[in-house]
């Protein structure tokens, strides 16, 4: 089973912060970041990633 997760972040002006978030997400085994969208005007970002159900939960909500 493949699950997609598309969280929004209240950061769209610091690309290095979004890069760090995406790197942490993708560091979870079995998770792949498909896309990231940064909206500077609205200071929002979206990172789309996929993986198995357990991996997605670990990538999305588990503290590291």
- CATH class group: Alpha Beta
Residue stretches low in confidence (pLDDT < 50, at least 5 long) are none
Q: Could you say which overall geometry the principal axes of the C-alpha atoms support?
A: elongated
What is the first-to-last residue Cα distance? 25 Å
User: What string gives the helices and strands in order?
Assistant: EEHEEH
Number of helices: 2
**Which class do the helix and strand fractions yield?**
alpha+beta
Q: Main sheet?
A: 4 strands, antiparallel
Beta fraction: 25-35%
Q: How many extended strands?
A: 4
Indicate the CATH architecture: 2-Layer Sandwich
Compute the CA-based radius of gyration: 11 Å
The helical percent reads 25-40%
Task: Tell me the number of structural domains.
Answer: 1
Instruction: Please tell me the overall pLDDT.
Output: 94
Please characterize this protein's 3D structure.
With 64 residues, the protein is of the alpha+beta class. The protein has a single domain (3-61), classed as Defensin A-like (2-Layer Sandwich). Helix content is 33%, strand content 33%. It has 2 helices and 4 strands. It has helices spanning 15-26, 53-61, and strands at residues 3-5, 8-9, 32-39, 44-51. Strands 1, 2, 3 and 4 form a 4-stranded antiparallel beta sheet that branches. The chain is elongated and about 35 Å long.
